[in-house]
Every structure is written in C-alpha cells, then in structure tokens.
Amino acid sequence: MTHAAEMLDLYPHDLDGIDRAALTRCIEECFSCAQVCTACADSCLGEATVADLVACIRTDLDCAEICDTTGRVLTRHTGGRTAPTRPLLEACAAACAACREECLRHAGMHEHCEVCAEACRRCEQACRNLLATLG
What we know:
InterPro entries: Csp_YhjQ, YHJQ-like. This is Four-helix bundle copper-binding protein. The protein is mainly α. It has one domain: Substrate Binding Domain Of Dnak, Chain:A, Domain 2, CATH 1.20.1270. It is built from five helices and no strands. It has helices at 3-10, 20-45, 54-75, 82-106, 111-133. It is elongated, with a radius of gyration of 16 Å.
C-alpha cells in the first residue's frame, strides 16, 4: 500500500462518494509526473543541443508545477469539494498532453524525453479517470 492510499484510508470521514482508488492513483501519478518532468528539464539542460530543447524545458517545468500543485490539492480533497478540483484536473491533463507532445518530438534523440512522455500520458489518463468519477 502506498502512503497516499494509506492516508486516504485513514481519513476519518467518508469522501462523499469520491472513488478512493482513482483519487489515490491520480495523486500518485501527479507527484510522479512532477518529478519526471523536473528531471527531464534538467537532463535537457545537460544536452549538447540545449538550444534546440528550450521549448521542451519550459513545457517540462510548467507541467511539473501544475502536476505538483494538483497532487497537493488532491491530497486535501476531502469533504466533496469538486468545484475547484474539476478545472485543476482539466488543466493538469492539458499540461500533461502538451508536455507529452513536446517530449515526443525529441524522444528519438533523448531517452529522458521518452520517459517523460510516458509519465505525462499516465498522469493525463489518471486526471481524466478521476474527472469521470466526479460525475
């Protein structure tokens, strides 16, 4: 059991019908994606062709910030507060899609971009899955 799952299981009140598994997965994928995007940006900075990777670096860093914020807000997602969460999940999914597309442009030359694109795909899907459960 992950720490996110353990903490959600220990929450003293019902989550007002929110799918705990989808919420847990989304929290975990957001934090994972934030870490991978940050590492990808750092790896891009170390490449000899760094000038060609400026858009990728910026997209990575934007995605990392949005994913981190989404993960932190979702961690406090108790009591059925779906109104502020819905647009945040939509923004996170959009940031992940944009980052995935940008990283895929470089994946053939930079394996870290391929890894990042996959992390973004998983996070985007987790956000969309959680959105679907919110009704």
